[in-house]
Design a protein that fits this description.
mainly alpha; 2 domains; 21 helices; about 0% strand; globular
Length: about 475
């Protein structure tokens, strides 16, 4: 599962005073929790959530004119939001799912495309979620049954799953009706969370609802709410009784499944916040001789691909990155004999203070892990992979394009980042422009064999080699 590495500006960022409201909400929550000396997570927690779309905290799930998407769309406050977001949001031409009847009472009255969205989630998305979370057969059964039960009895989970499912549709077109449906279910979800917080009703259902809200906001581009969501969810977990109490409900023994789901969402926020590209050029400038590293660290460097080891010896990468690389290598060993579609996703804690180059390296590893695991074939790839935004971020780091020691690394980063497993989620022109930029003026790189040799100096995936060669073939034919 967001200030972020992904430097894009969604509909809530363009000339919108609500951005300031999110920042104020975050500061207010932090200030309230720190007041009067001893920290009290209950103080300020129940005011952390702000509802940006004209939805009253007292609104219910009963349909009325104030929550109708057409009414909201025509209001002066939201007119710009709808127009700009409909242009930028990647949406499919149709809703996938057979609208099968699940045990959800009155789902037809819950809003537009609700039945189709729920069908799409339980029939199509759920199996991918189970693989990405690395759940065994018992966990898969309780996870699906628990979500279905909560969907039938909680409007918050229902609207959250509906919004998430609609966001996840592949980017093969844009449909204004689907976008309005996403915003409708998001408003309902926000209102539900707000009411529960006002009533101090903190339980597993509320945690699950927020875990659905976070990726929806990330997809829609409400990046300013990432720190607010992170702070609020952390406080709610503390009020719940700590992390060990998460999932301690009677609903189909959901248990550790909710813990794993929550950690995945929280890691998405932390990952985006920690790996953001800063305006300042932060370059280590060969100030860290390898000999100054601890013997244990030097031993670990010897196990790295030669291209990465070279960057450590040159002082471009610091020891802070070593645990991340070791985590990735451990994951590679663990999933080596597992079919890619069944491999769990890889994420690693990201320490603060990494340079822009190091942040780009970490994000490249995540992209490669996603493309070679269950995440690569996940229908919701449009939400988390973000190849366009990450390609743009690479171009915004000057040292990547000016330091000769980074030439091969740039070719590897751009290749991995611009070629997602699902090639429908990136524009071909954006892909080709970045790859051409990575070899501009370098005659040596005009043949695939030479590019492949340089890619092999880093983490090279035989699973992705065919697609990389095909993509580079198109680029080299145009040079």
């Amino acid at each position: 599962m967001p200030a972020m590495f992904v430097p894009y500006y969604g509909p809530s960022n363009k000339n919108n005073p609500k951005t300031r409201r999110a920042v104020n909400a975050f500061k207010a929550a932090r200030g309230a929790s720190r007041s009067h000396g001893r920290r009290n997570p209950a103080r300020g927690t129940f005011q952390w959530m702000h509802i940006p779309e004209s939805s009253s905290a007292e609104s219910t799930d009963t349909e009325d004119s104030s929550t109708d998407p057409e009414t909201v769309k025509s209001s002066p406050e939201s007119q710009t939001l709808f127009v700009e977001a409909a242009i930028s949001a990647p949406l499919t031409r149709y809703a996938i799912g057979g609208e099968k009847l699940y045990s959800v009472r009155g789902h037809q009255a819950k809003g537009p495309l609700t039945a189709a969205a729920l069908s799409h989630y339980f029939d199509i998305l759920l199996p991918h979620d189970l693989n990405a979370l690395g759940l065994g057969d018992p966990g898969k059964g309780t996870f699906g049954a628990g979500l279905l039960h909560w969907t039938a009895h909680s409007d918050g989970v229902l609207h959250g799953l509906a919004a998430f499912a609609l966001c996840s549709l592949e980017t093969i077109g844009k449909t204004d009706a689907i976008y309005r449906a996403i915003l409708h279910h998001r408003r309902k979800l926000l209102a539900y969370v707000h009411r529960r917080l006002e009533r101090r009703e903190v339980d597993d259902v509320l945690i699950q609802a927020i875990c659905l809200l976070i990726p929806v906001d990330d997809y829609l581009g409400y990046v300013e709410y990432g720190p607010v969501h992170q702070k609020g969810l952390s406080d709610i977990v503390e009020i719940r009784g700590g992390f060990e109490r998460v999932g301690n409900s009677d609903v189909v023994s959901f248990g550790a499944n909710l813990q794993r789901s929550m950690l995945t969402v929280m890691s998405m926020i932390e990952f985006h916040m920690r790996t953001r590209i800063t305006p300042e050029s932060v370059h280590l400038g060969r100030s860290m001789p390898t000999a100054s590293l601890l013997p244990e660290t030097r031993q670990k460097l010897s196990s790295l691909p030669p291209g990465l080891a070279e960057l450590f010896h040159a002082g471009i990468l610091s020891a802070n990155v070593v645990p991340i690389l070791m985590s990735y290598q451990t994951w590679l060993i663990q999933v080596e004999d597992i079919e890619p579609r069944s491999r769990n996703a890889w994420r690693s804690p990201v320490p603060p203070g990494l340079s822009n180059v190091e942040n780009c390296l970490v994000v490249t590893l995540v992209c490669l892990a996603d493309d070679t695991s269950a995440m690569g074939t996940h229908p919701a790839a449009a939400i988390f992979r973000k190849p366009k935004q990450r390609c743009d971020a690479l171009t915004d780091v000057p040292e990547l394009w000016t330091d000769p020691v980074l030439v091969d690394c740039v070719i590897w980063m751009t290749t991995v980042t611009s070629t997602p497993r699902n090639n429908q989620i990136i524009d071909g022109d954006i892909q080709k422009a970045l790859l051409k930029k990575s070899i501009r003026g370098r005659v040596f790189a005009l043949e695939w064999e030479e590019i492949q040799r340089r890619l092999r100096r880093f983490y090279y995936s035989e699973l992705r080699a065919g697609e990389w060669e095909k993509t580079w073939g198109v680029v080299l034919d145009e040079i």
